[in-house]
Specification:
It is built from nine helices and nine strands. The chain is an alpha/beta fold. It has a single domain, classed as Rossmann fold. Strands 5-6-7-3-8-9 form a six-stranded mixed beta sheet, with helices on both faces. The protein has a three-stranded antiparallel beta sheet with strand order 2-1-4, with helices on one face. Helix 7 packs across helix 9.
Length: about 240
């Protein structure tokens, strides 16, 4: 399995405030990596550095993920554009013909649960559907790596669980590499092959947890295997924090 991202000794300060301290990890091809940490610990700052939007003060990483499909916490859809017009924007910038990009988008609409909504405006969609539109736009950028910043954090718990289960299937189907940040333990288990646990600010790495769950077990929150993995993650956090 080849490595698509290497991060070594990454650090970041804002004035006297140290945000990230000695962050090191790798992302493998077709792997989904969850970065789990408390609110305000620096998870979004880490993503911004990896995307080339924020400079690091120390350390290195390669490559810059400036061609990644990025989904921030809000969908950031243009309200005056229809669904298909929002999705095709990165393809337009790449010079793809209108016929070519719309044909490709329509072939993906069923996968994303958006078939029949290509002519709708964002205000006509639910919050969950808007996030699916934004994710499809990120995928249509053509990158093999997706960067997701708490994409379902603003949704109600029922919608969030439904979209987590759906996204787990999409990630497997697309076989792309994914980094996503979250402070939700269950979301980390559902969506990832491996979890990187960060401490409180300044964020440093408390530990890693590799998931051995099958695709079916990852979306069955009451299965013994799911609960065992979730509890192992809790144990990792508690044990590391107690020795910090």
């Amino acid at each position: 399995m080849s490595t698509v991202l290497e991060v070594t000794g990454l650090a970041k300060r804002f004035g006297d405030l140290e945000v990230l301290h000695d962050i090191e990890f790798a992302l493998n091809e077709a792997e989904s990596l969850a970065i789990l940490g408390p609110s305000g610990c620096g998870k979004t700052t880490l993503l911004r550095i990896l995307l080339g939007l924020e400079p690091a003060d120390a350390g290195s990483f390669s490559p810059i993920l400036d061609r990644a499909g990025y989904l921030p916490q809000g969908s950031l859809l243009f309200p005056w554009k229809r669904v298909i017009e929002n999705i095709e924007l990165p393809m337009q910038l790449q010079g793809m013909t209108r016929e070519g990009r719309r044909s490709k988008i329509r072939s993906h609409l069923p996968i994303f649960g958006l078939e029949g909504f290509d002519s709708s405006y964002p205000f006509e969609l639910s919050g969950g559907m808007r996030q699916r539109v934004a994710l499809l736009r990120a995928v249509m950028a053509g990158a093999r790596t997706l960067i997701l910043d708490e994409p379902f954090g603003a949704l109600d718990i029922v919608t969030r669980h439904r979209l987590q289960d759906w996204l787990a299937g999409v990630i497997e189907q697309l076989a792309c590499s994914v980094i996503f940040v979250t402070h939700d333990l269950e979301e980390a288990v559902v969506l990832s092959h491996r979890v990187l646990v960060l401490s409180e600010r300044p964020a440093s790495i408390l530990g890693h947890l590799k998931s051995e769950l099958s695709s079916r077990d990852r979306v069955d929150r009451m299965s013994p295997k799911f609960l065992q993995t979730r509890n192992a993650l809790v144990d990792l956090i508690v044990s590391k924090e107690s020795h910090a």
